[in-house]
Each structure stands twice: as C-alpha cells, then as structure tokens.
Amino acid sequence: MALSITEKKVFKLHLFFSTAEGITRGVIALNAFVLLKSLNGTEDQVGYLFTITWGIMVLTVLFNILMKNSKNIKRMLNIMSLITRAPMLLFAFFPLIDNQGKDLFPHLFLLIFLLYFISQPFFMPVINLALKTNYSKENFGRLFSYSNMVRNGSTLLATLVFGIMLDFNNNAYTIIYPVTGLLGFISIYTLTLIDFKTYDPEVKGTIYQKLIFHLKKMWQILSKNKPYRDFEIGFVFYGIAFMITDSVIKIFMGEYLKLNYTTLSVYENLRWIFAIGLTPIFARVVDKMDPRKLGIISFLSLAVYILFIGLTQYFDQTFRLFGLEMHITIVISLLFFGVFTATNGILWSIGSAYFCKDKDAADYQSIHMSLTGIRALIFPIIGIEILKNFNYSINFISGIIFLTISCLILYYSMKKYNI
User: Fold this and answer.
1) Which residues of 226-251 are buried (b: 16+ CB within 10 A; e: fewer)?
2) Where does residue 343 rank: exposed (0-12), middle (13-18), buried (19+ CB within 10 A)?
3) What is the pLDDT of residues 365-402, one digit of tens each?
4) Of 89, 95, 139, 288, which is the most exposed, with the fewest CB atoms less than 10 Å away?
5) Residue range 203-249, pLDDT digits in tens
6) Which residues contact 89 (CB under 8 A, 6 or more apart)?
7) Do residues 148 and 282 make contact, with C-beta atoms less than 8 angstroms apart?
8) By C-alpha distance, which of 88, 90, 66 is closest to 77?
9) Which of 64-78, 190-204, 315-329 has the weakest average pLDDT?
C-alpha cells in the first residue's frame, strides 16, 4: 500500500531515531564485557547488570499512567531523557589506569546504567503509541521492519568500532559512553518531533487510585483476551530462558573462551549481519502472520543458538578470519541468533499491538514490558547461581527446556484461538 504524506514524514524521523538508537544499542551490547574485562567486575555484577537492564521494566505501568495523565508528553520525554542520559558523562572521569578504583567503579558503572535504563519503560510505550497512531495497519509492520533493519545496521557498525577501540585502548569506554549519552538525548528529541494522538485519562484521582485502576485493567485484558494471554505466557517462558542464559553466555565467551574485544564485536556483528539479511524476508510476511507463529520461529531459533553455544565446550574447532580465531560452533549459532534477532526485534516491540485497538496499544505494551521487568528481577541472578552451583551445560539445557515449553504454549494457542 502506498504511503501517505504523514507516513512518509514520520518514517523519516523514525529512521533517524532508529539509527541513533542502533548506535547506542551497539555500544551497550558490549556492556557486560566492559564490566568484566575493563573494570574487573564479578560474575554476580554481570547478573546485576542484566537485572537492571530489564528489571526496571516493572515500572512500565506507573510510567504509562504518567504518560496518559501528562499535559505535555513531549516535554516529559525531553526531561526524562536529560535526567537519564546526562549521568553517562560521568564515564569521562573514570580511571585511565588499569585496576585503579577496582572496587568502586564497577558499582558506579551499575548505578549509571540503572539511571539510563530507568527511562525505557516510559519511552517504549510512547514510541509504540506514536507509530501506531501514524502508520496505517497495512503499512505498520512493513515500515517498522525496515526501520528495524536500519537500526540493526547501525548497531553492527557501532559494535565493531567500539570493540576495536577497546582492544586498542582498554579505557576507550571513557570517551564512547559520554558520546552515547548525548546521542541518546538527541534520538529522544527526534521522537518528540512526531505528532501523535493522546487519549483522555480513563480515571481521575490520585496516582495510587490510577495505579490500582490500571492493574485491574491489566488483569481484565489478560483474562478476556485469551490469545494475548497465551502470547504473554509464552513470552514469560521465553523470557526465563533468555534471562538465565544471556549473562552466562557473556561470561562463557569472556571468561571461559577468553575472547578479546575485537573477536567479541565480530561475533556480535555476524549476528546483526544475519539479522539484517533476514529482516526484509520477515518484513514481507509480518503483517499477514499470526504473531504467535512468529514467536515460535523466534524462540526455536534461540534454542538452537543456545545449543550450539553449549557445544563449543565439546567441539572446540576454530578457523582464522582476518587474523582472528573463530569458533565454528559459535558462528553456526549466530546464524540462528540472527533469525531470533530479526524476528524478536519485531515481535518484542510491536507484537502486542496486533492483539488490540490503536488506542489500547500503550496499555498492551505496558503489560508486556511489566511482565518482562518482573521476571528480570529474579531470573538473571538464578542463571548465575545455576552456573556457580552446577556448570555451563546445565544452565544452557535449562534455557532450552523453557523455550520448548514456550513454543508448545504458542502452538496450542494458535490451534485454539484466532485473532
């Protein structure tokens, strides 16, 4: 379907926003490795990093209330952006000598990124609302997929450059993180240039009364919209798998395989190259495909990725690429992780929107993100404990089992309910 004048304007702003966010995401992709290798962080601190990255999503409902009751959402976006991005300038004052401030700086690192990620539960429902009210239903998935492809491309480039810089200078993060914070502010400002509909508050009263109202509404949505309920239950099991394995996989690569920053960034880039190549394929079908079916494809791909990562312990075959030692099983795993990235980037961001009306998009996304936050408060640390008390293999097998359960839930939901 041809784009309207409004869609063309919004798509240009959306592309710029996606590019800036992709660069930011590319830098942040190496966070765990910076914490481990440059700041001498511990395994537990890597688990805490993952917890604050996603656990903060539990505040989504509260932030959704603030958004709906704000008289000037765009002003609130800019203020929130300034408060949460400005602390990243503090990285410029981190030690330039290895091991200086060994005990203090990993904690400061976690605190700064806690402030950074605290804005995500507010930004993402607003983004969802802005796009849902400006893109037609026929073009929504296609335009989002294309912008997601651009974001993946900028992520790829940023990760590679940052990884090479860190190998050249272990403290390169003291320059890159402050620049990333500035870019993050600019990207949110770009979002405020998009005009979008706002809806009148559904209930008047105190913040507490509004919170109770929205919690009841969340329960009603999950109770009455059974396809969406099953979608979220499937996501819960997927989320458990992802959260108990992701930080452990980073420890596995950084500590067990002892990979340098450049190799780590190349692996990240292979994932994004595969994702970028596959995104146009899924972009053509996403508007015609049941999001639960897309979920099955996504979660099975993640299961195969975890399987091949685990096999690296037993089949440690390598080859040379541009002077770097590459593990065959990891390269194969990244092909499947590329499928997961291409599908899940669409599914996680806008999957819930397919189950609701335009005006309810932010509510549905806030439910989705709140559930993400709840499980993130618990399972990253459980993943670390599984590693400490057992081994890598038990951790990875646990993740695969949870993903299998998730796929079965979505499959039987598709058989029972249409959307």
Assistant:
1) ebbbbbbbbbbbbbbbbbbbbbbbbb
2) buried
3) 778 778 888 888 889 999 999 999 999 999 999 999 99
4) 288
5) 566 777 777 877 888 888 888 888 889 998 999 999 999 999 999 99
6) 178, 181, 182
7) no
8) 66
9) 190-204
Q: Within a 10 A sphere around the Cβ of 98, how many other Cβ atoms?
A: 11
Q: Which residue has the tokens 């089949």?
A: 315
Per-residue confidence (pLDDT) for residue 68, from 0 to 100: 67
If you count them, how many residues does the chain have?
419
User: Nearest 5°: CA angle at 63, between 56 and 68?
Assistant: 160
Q: Per mean pLDDT, which range of 75-79, 227-231, 243-247, 296-300 is the poorest? A: 75-79
Nearest in space to 151 (alpha carbons), one of 326, 336, 348, 305: 348
Q: How many CB atoms lie within 10 A of CB 127?
A: 22
Q: Which residue has the tokens 């190998």?
A: 167
Tokens 């869609």 identify what position?
7
- In this structure, the number of other CB atoms found within 10 A of the CB of residue 209 comes to 11
CATH superfamily of this structure's domain 5-416: MFS general substrate transporter like domains (1.20.1250.20)
In angstroms and rounded to an integer, the radius of gyration of the C-alpha atoms of the chain is: 21
The C-alpha atoms of residue 39 and residue 94 are separated, in whole angstroms, by 10
pLDDT value at residue 197? 65
How much is the average pLDDT of 58-69? 72
Mean pLDDT of 341-367: 75
Q: What is the pLDDT of residue 97?
A: 47
* Entry pTM: 0.80
* DSSP secondary structure, 286-345, as one string: TTTS-HHHHHHHHHHHHHHHHHHHHHTTT---EEEETTEEEEHHHHHHHHHHHHHHHHHH
Q: What is the pLDDT of residue 12?
A: 86
Question: Which residues fall within 8 angstroms of residue 145, CB to CB, at 6 or more apart?
Answer: 279, 280, 282, 283, 286, 346
Which pair of structure tokens corresponds to residue 185?
Answer: 């502010």
How many Å apart are CA 53 and CA 118, to the nearest integer?
8
